[in-house]
Specification:
alpha/beta; D-Maltodextrin-Binding Protein, domain 2; five-stranded mixed beta sheet; about 15% strand; signal; SsuA/THI5-like domain-containing protein
Length: about 350
């Protein structure tokens, strides 16, 4: 009898000890999965990249199990250095940079896998208000352009040539001023026209320092102006991660497409604490109305060819690169289909 009591007591004790253990197992089962880290290097902080900030602000990356960190690495060269050296997993930068890297003989090419913007993001700003602007009014003037070899400058020259203007003969072209100082140079009296990004163009207009007279984005047509890209080796080793990342980007693109400029500005506001909300809304509306934000992540062949044509016109295309060599649309198409 005593032996039976001892056995019963022992069994009861084991059962009691197992209860908290089971509870622990249940608790651990309820714990969220550890998020996978992905590091983005963006070429600049710009409202032009609104879908990226929406994906972050609305938690679309987290919904896909990704812990995304964002670092601004000013300039395409620095952004690509961060990507190639392993300082970043994904870069948000102009597609022309992937061509430059490939042309230098990289054995691990950078692949474009998700497009974010599909037009140029700059505007032509005049010092004086012009009611009926025509491009030939630039002839004989001083034009403050963008840095030589950069996508804005190449698009600028492409558009001028499209309108019968030789940028190196028909006007005085200034393109030796650092990107960060172009707006200040114009504000202090240099040039009669300037090529500016937002929100500077709208701020100048609001302050009466200049007037937007044309959009280079409308004039140049669709190009893969800014895309998410990664090294080929990273994409092969992290196929699931790239798919989740692209899915989050697509969610953000659809959200931007279906919401108002004011709602988009409100969503991305935390990333632009020093920008006036009214200006931000104006900028978003301007980009959205001219179709600058890609509505899906697919970079198509026509856009790729247009990019290389623009680079070639500017004398900056090192060599023609086949579309399938540096563009992967399989992931984007899979995400959209799902």
């Amino acid at each position: 009898m005593k032996r039976w009591l001892k056995i019963s007591f022992s069994l009861a004790l084991i059962a009691i000890l197992m209860i908290p253990l089971a509870a622990c197992n249940n608790d651990s089962a309820k714990e969220p999965k550890k998020l996978e880290k992905v590091r983005i290097a963006e070429v600049t902080r710009s409202i032009f990249y609104a879908p990226q900030y929406v994906a972050l602000a609305k938690g679309f990356f987290k919904e896909e199990g990704l812990d995304v960190t964002l670092t601004t690495t000013p300039g395409g060269d620095k952004t690509m250095t961060a990507l190639l050296s392993g300082g970043a997993d994904v870069a948000l930068v102009g597609s022309e940079t992937s061509i430059y890297v490939y042309a230098q003989g990289s054995n691990d090419p950078v692949i474009n896998f998700a497009q974010v913007t599909q037009t140029d993001g700059t505007f032509l700003v005049a010092r004086e208000k012009i009611d009926n602007f025509s491009w030939d009014q630039l002839k004989g003037t001083t034009f403050l352009g963008q840095r030589k070899g950069g996508m804005p400058q190449m698009v600028g020259e492409f558009v001028l040539k499209k309108h019968g203007i030789d940028p190196h003969k028909d006007l005085t072209l200034i393109q030796n001023i650092d990107f960060a100082n172009i707006a200040n140079a114009f504000a202090s009296g240099t040039g009669q026209f300037v090529q500016l990004f937002e929100p500077t163009a709208s701020i100048f207009e609001k302050e009466g320092k200049g007037y937007i007279v044309a959009s280079f984005g409308k004039e140049s047509g669709h190009v893969p102006y800014t895309t998410f890209m990664a090294k080929e080796s990273y994409m092969k080793q992290n196929k699931e991660t790239i798919e989740k990342f692209t899915k989050a980007v697509y969610k953000a693109q659809q959200w931007v497409e279906s919401h108002s400029a004011e709602e988009i500005a409100k969503a991305v506001e935390p990333y632009f604490p020093d920008t006036d909300f009214e200006i931000m809304t104006t900028v978003v509306d301007r980009y959205k109305s001219q179709g600058s934000f890609a509505t899906d992540p697919i970079l198509d062949e026509e856009e790729w060819n247009n990019l290389q044509n623009i680079m070639n016109e500017a004398g900056e295309l090192p060599k023609e690169i086949d579309y399938k060599t540096l563009v992967n649309t399989e992931v984007a198409k899979k995400v959209i289909k799902k």
